[in-house]
Design goal:
This protein is of the alpha/beta class. The protein contains 18 helices and 18 strands. 35% of the residues lie in helices and 16% in strands. It has a ten-stranded mixed beta sheet with strand order 4-3-2-6-7-8-9-10-11-12. Strands 15-16-14-13-17-18 form a six-stranded mixed beta sheet, sandwiched between helices. β2 and β3 form a beta hairpin. α14 crosses α15 and α14 runs parallel beside α16. It starts with a strand and ends in a 5-residue tail after the last helix.
Length: 467
């Protein structure tokens, strides 16, 4: 059987509460918690098995395409592993539980998490987590850090790495270090120079080589010259064969996209990077989405998107060592949230007007989508949902209303259920999805619960061609 390599081997402890995920590019990656369970129990949990079985079946519906370069670049076939069975423990482990950083990046919320932590409680959780990790560390062949903070500020993770002694032969082991590069100098490297005997990959994320842009995007007062000097130091380790692979990455966004050609040239020519990675912007929720939307220049709706497309035609992006993780495909943020809300408001008003001015035609639209007298469930009890209860109850058998935010149990003598209260008796019904936003997300949840895809009817589609 074949499975995506990250679905098998990317196991990450990603916060101080001991949460574990398999692959950071999926919506169902969470598989358990080390405060409550052993590492073996988490890796072999029901959630982990479900994720792996999904990937084995070739189902990538819960993978975040904007995050995953395998899917975005249509390269998933080159990342499938042939396996006979699942191992008791993974070969790989990524340590990212110590969420601390010396940067305050414009797109990352790690810094905010640091400010609200109770340090004594965090240290107690670290002790529990590390006892669980220490039991499996000797069996790990491939170890990585950090990805959720800065490795050279993560004192506990540095200690684990400095003491790591795998059972496997040295030539079978590897290490990946992810860092912002600000502290990767000779002094700090000495803390973990033992890792140089393994196959070592160093990944440095640099937002810009221009002073002002670098400081603005990284939230630091450090001069960019510090990063430049550290990159040259890492290059010297690469030249000596101590570092075996040297990657430099950035997050392409509104403030830095115009310098991408020069950025790629410097990474290759000045710092000798083996791999230059251009990542898409992903909203972390640090700022309101109305503001973060403007960061995402890869989004086709962004006002600078066409200029971005022209810049990405530069020949440097065809270099075999330069990799555009967007795959040339725009992200899925779509129109600006204000524009979306305006469109939803207009569409909702139009649907209401259809009902007010021509009820017969309104009902005819539904009869084209749902057979008369069919069993119906209405999803959402907003203005449209209440209108449908009034309009459809004479011609259809409305069995239930699903609304997670509703405060009461009935509406017009019809049961109102939370999503967790849905039972199998409803799975044969037609479901009319009334919220105009997040229709695809709601449909995905209904499919996961077991509803028939042919019987999920989005209200926005019922009136799609209505005039």
């Amino acid at each position: 059987m074949k499975i995506c390599d990250r679905g098998l081997n990317f196991v990450q402890i990603y916060n101080d509460t001991g949460d574990v995920r398999i692959c950071s590019w999926t919506r169902d990656g969470y598989v358990g918690n080390l405060l409550d369970n052993s590492f073996e129990e988490v890796y072999n949990s029901d959630a982990a098995k479900q994720l792996r079985n999904r990937l084995i079946s070739g189902d990538y519906s819960k993978c975040n395409v904007d995050d995953c370069p395998y899917l975005t670049c249509c390269d998933i076939k080159n990342h499938l592993l042939e396996i006979d069975d699942f191992p008791q423990f993974p070969d790989s482990l990524y340590l990212a539980y110590e969420n601390v950083c010396n940067y305050n990046c414009i797109t990352c919320n790690i810094h905010e998490k640091m400010l609200v932590q109770n340090k004594d409680e965090v240290e107690k959780r670290y002790d529990i987590i590390e006892k669980k990790i220490e039991k499996v560390l000797p069996y790990i062949k491939h170890i990585g850090a950090n990805g959720q903070g800065e490795i050279f500020v993560s004192k506990r993770i540095l200690k684990l790495l400095s003491e790591w002694k795998p059972i496997a032969p040295v030539e079978e082991c590897s290490v990946v270090i992810e860092t912002n590069g600000s502290l990767f100098d000779e002094e700090h490297w000495k803390q973990i120079e033992n890792l140089g005997k393994y196959h070592l990959t160093v990944m440095v994320t640099v937002m810009s080589f221009q002073e002002y842009t670098y400081q603005q995007l990284s939230g630091t007062r450090l001069p960019v010259s510090k990063i430049v000097n550290n990159l040259k130091y890492i290059k010297s380790l690469r030249d000596k064969g101590i570092v075996n692979e040297f990657h430099i990455a950035t997050v392409v966004q509104e403030r830095n996209f115009r310098e991408m050609p020069e950025f790629a040239h410097r990474c290759l020519e000045e710092f000798g990077a083996d791999y230059v990675r251009l990542r898409s912007f992903v909203p972390w929720g640090k700022r309101p989405i109305e503001e973060e939307w403007f960061f995402d220049v890869i989004n086709p709706y962004h006002p600078y998107h066409e200029e971005y497309v022209e810049i990405m035609k530069d020949p440097i992006f065809n270099h075999p060592k330069v990799h555009d993780w967007s795959g040339g495909i725009g992200t899925a943020l779509g129109e600006h949230p204000f524009k979306k809300r305006l469109n939803y408001a207009i569409r909702k008003m139009q649907i209401q007007q259809h009902f007010i001015f021509d009820k017969d035609k309104f009902m005819k639209q539904f009869s084209l989508a749902i057979p008369l007298n069919a069993k119906v469930v209405i999803y959402g009890l907003g203005e449209i949902g209440k209108l449908l209860v009034c309009a459809l109850r004479e011609k259809y058998a409305i069995s239930s209303i699903i609304d997670n935010n509703c405060r009461y149990k009935e509406y017009e003598d019809i049961k109102v259920l939370k999503r967790t209260e849905i039972d199998d008796s409803l799975l044969d019904a037609y479901v009319i999805v009334t919220p105009l936003g997040e229709q695809e997300k709601i449909e995905s949840e209904l499919l996961e619960r077991g509803f028939d895809s042919k019987k999920i009817v989005r209200i926005i589609d019922v009136f799609k061609d209505y005039s």
